[in-house]
Amino acid sequence: MSDDGVSARGVWVLVCEDDRQLGERVADGLRGAGFAVDLTHNLTDATRRCGVRLYDCLIVDRGLPDGDGLELVRRQRESGDRTPALLITARDSAGGRAESYAGGADDYLPKPFALGELAARVRALCTPHRARPTPLLTLGDLAVDRLRRRVRRNGILLTLTTREFCALELLASRVGTLVTPAEIAACCGDPGPTIDDLITRLTRKLGDPPLIHTAPAGYLLHT
């Protein structure tokens, strides 16, 4: 248990920092604070790791050798993943901060920084109120694998687009609860007028009997 009452035990953090010396220092500091840490040095490896493990927090440098770390956060958000993300950068500016937050980052820390401050920010992002999503949602004959991003119905693997999966994941995580078109649009990145078409395609792919039902103010998933 940390000194602020939030336990780091079992909390997985991905650190993506191209400066290997700094990356090792950050990883060692977080491990010393009780976090479990995976360390990567480029965007490609970080993206791959996000596809095989559910992290509790992402710490990503913006200036990576193969791209901007903000792109990883943007892709996570577009896919419906809300894992807390903290961006670190050597180029601090008001514009950079605004861009980072607009791209989906939860926090932003300019270099150089104290490891104690970084650990405190990670603890704040990983409070118990930010519950880690259940990797597998099983709803009757529907199985939504949030880790591998696969969907099966009656054991049959379905082919969904990224946005269709995002919409289904949102509906399945709130089964029986009304989800508005605006909420689906925010999750999937689709403009409002296309949400009806998106849900229609998704409903057709899920097959019979229908699982998604239309209400005056939105959609509900029932099994």
State the gist of this model.
InterPro entries: CheY-like_superfamily, OmpR/PhoB-type_DNA-bd, Sig_transdc_resp-reg_receiver, WalR-like, WH-like_DNA-bd_sf. With 223 residues, this protein is of the alpha/beta class.
- Sequence stretches where pLDDT stays below 50 over 5 or more residues: 1-7
CATH superfamily of the largest domain: Response regulator
Mean pLDDT: 85
Globally, the shape reads: elongated
Keywords: DNA-binding, Phosphoprotein
Protein name: DNA-binding response regulator
GO biological process, one term: regulation of DNA-templated transcription
InterPro entries: CheY-like_superfamily (IPR011006), OmpR/PhoB-type_DNA-bd (IPR001867), Sig_transdc_resp-reg_receiver (IPR001789), WalR-like (IPR039420), WH-like_DNA-bd_sf (IPR036388)
Task: Describe what this molecule looks like in 3D.
The protein is built from eight helices and 13 strands. The protein is an alpha/beta fold. It has two domains: 12-125, Response regulator (Rossmann fold), CATH 3.40.50; 136-221, Orthogonal Bundle (Arc Repressor Mutant, subunit A). The protein is elongated.
Keywords:
single chain, 223 residues, alpha/beta, Rossmann fold, Arc Repressor Mutant, subunit A, 2 domains, five-stranded parallel sheet, four-stranded antiparallel sheet, 37% helix, disordered N terminus, phosphorelay response regulator activity, WH-like_DNA-bd_sf, transcription cis-regulatory region binding, DNA-binding
Could you outline the blueprint of secondary structure elements for this entry?
Elements: E1 12-16, H1 20-32, E2 36-40, H2 43-50, E3 57-61, E4 63-64, E5 67-68, H3 69-78, E6 85-89, H4 94-102, E7 107-110, H5 115-125, E8 136-139, E9 142-145, E10 150-153, E11 156-158, H6 162-173, H7 181-188, H8 195-206, E12 212-215, E13 218-221
Parallel strand pairs: 1-2, 1-3, 3-6, 6-7
Antiparallel strand pairs: 4-5, 8-9, 9-10, 10-11, 12-13
